[in-house]
Write a structure and sequence with these properties.
132 residues, alpha/beta, Rossmann fold, 2 domains, 4-stranded parallel beta sheet, two-stranded antiparallel sheet, 6 strands, globular, PTS system, IIB component, transferase, protein-N(PI)-phosphohistidine-sugar phosphotransferase activity, PTS_EIIB_2/3
Amino acid sequence: MSQVHRDFVTQIQFGFTPFSYAPAIHVSHCNCAIALTQIEINIMKKILVVCGNGLGTSLMMEMAVKEVAKKLGLEAEIDHEDLSSAASSKADIWVAATDVATQLEEAGKENIIKLVNIFDKASIEAQLKTFM
């Protein structure tokens, strides 16, 4: 292999913080062949727990969602808020009791975890796994 070919090894790396969406890409180039060695995308999800007033119910659901997310090893920003504020908020995943979830759907929100029983952590876990 000539010196030119040995010197023609290039690595391109795009780093990111946990809050950015730029992927980490490592590319090697040698002998006119490109090999994609690794693509790693870490995007922290935002989960918003919603209830009618954004006080007690959503706070209890938030605590349950945080516990389940920790158990699953899911790193996420988890917060709670009232239904009227949620209309203008953005999130990757929404969590709400069925009556509030219907209103979120009517507002055009997607990726909604609908809870019949807000204390059912098994239901939260099963539905949260579908978004991982």
